[in-house]
Amino acid sequence: MKPAPFVHHAPGTVEEAVAVLAEVGHDGKVLAGGQSLIPLLNMRLASPAHLVDINRVAGLDAVEVTPQHVRVGALVRHAALERSEEAYAALPILRQAVANVAHPSIRNRGTTVGSIAHADAAGEMPAVLALTEGVVEVVGPDGAHEIPCADFFLGPLETCLAPEELVVGVRFGRLPAGTGTAFTESARRHGDYAVAGVGVALTVSDGIVSDARASFVSVTAVPSVLDLGAALRGVEPGSEAWRRGLDAAAEVVHAYVDPEDDIHASAEYRRMLAAELTRRVLPLAVQVGEHSTAATTTSSGHFPSTSPHAETSSGHLGATGPQGDGAQLKQSAHSTGGDGSEREREREREGQVAGEVTVTVNGIRHTASVPARRLLSDFLRHDLQLTGTHVGCEHGVCGACTVLVDGRPMRSCLMFAVTAQGHEITTVEGLCSAPDARVAPTGESMNPVQQAFAECHGLQCGFCTPGFLTTITAYLDENPQPTSAQAREAISGNLCRCTGYQNIVKSVLRAAELRTERAAERAAEPAPATTGESA
After folding, report:
1. Most buried pick, 178, 299, 305, 524, via CB within 10 A?
2. Among candidates 221, 231, 229, 227, which has minimal Cα distance to 270?
3. pTM for this structure?
4. Where are stretches of biased composition, namely Polar residues (predicted)?
5. Which H, E and C letters describe 144-206, residue by residue?
6. Which of these, 398, 384, 389, lies nearest to 42 by C-alpha position?
């Protein structure tokens, strides 16, 4: 399960990216996070001849909050949006929804805008964009323009975006004062694609409901919004009429959604589930609304709508695209090189022309020549001989290949080696040289997580263990004293076929104890003596 050969382009500006897209047309795909695209490439469900990697384009990684909207740039990772306190205060449903997007290792790499541009009916963020009447910001050869969410999605995995156009950001509309939001979904495993999901926005004015809307995941062909006002408008939350209104709202949803049968659930089960989730999530929206301090109202008191001709607020791009002077495209990393001959291009497509990548792995700087389609997992295992990183599913589900990229866990099977350029990577081998590592009775150095796995029998065959070790090490950096429930959620993105997870949970808790003990030891150590005189 490896991607077909392609030419990798790494433009440095939006204009360069658009120019490449205009040249390659339907043969090109944009690569940002790649957590939806690369699984398709690995399974050969998509085989573009060109990938336009925008990760080196400056100015696309900002979250901006104004009284009218929350703007998210094309390179904002899900995890960054989830951590943004300003965005959460302005529009709580962003965090409510993004917390349901896959697993932390996916959110650390995947982008919110990329998820929206992918237009998967099972995606959470397209549903939120619809619920907030958002706008998609696009740059093409003719300049910048905006597309209202209602016009952007045409069908499953289909948008109105032209091949030569690049999505540079999206704007989620702020909701009226007194509006509470909530989001919930049901999946076979936490973080998996939802069998059904519902996001709601409920406005309460003077103690009664004035507006209620819902959007859905996995039960409609395109993101859409259902007005629940007929069932709930004029009702006081908590009253007997409220309970009847919830039943009525559930019936409206049951009649509205149009799911399909698949291997995970029947259409009727999804329909029933969407209705029941709506019934359960609406009271949560009331609670959020009661505690909201950052809502913004429009003059009409209704949900804000954004004109497709509204002025862009980013200020980064202006309205100019490529200059159109007829000059040759600037060559970028791994783009067609040499003399531009057809033979050279064909060799690139066949993966015979390698590109150079420089990356720091476990503290050691490496420079290597690799094909553009070489997965990071394969680069680590075959080029660097770091075979502790294991390869399982190669579409981001099992977690065996998880490594730390700049300290955060990511799936190495969902990254290309060329996209790791300039980053610092830690594999399971690198955990042994951590500052809190100690020499075990076996004579080998182990960090606290490794030692805890050995003490608590958290491994059997060991195939999945490297991914668990890197995932847990990073998790304990952020949450040094987890509960048992939190430990279970932390490891939910990693599959193990042997242990039943009980001892892995014990290992997480024991690792937390060991880290605390070793931190205390280091704090108690005397400071090193200094000699000599100061100048």
Report:
1. 178
2. 221
3. 0.87
4. 301-315
5. EEEEEHHHHEEECCEECCCCCCEEEEEEEECCCCCEEEEEEEECCCCCCCCCEEEEEEEEEEC
6. 398
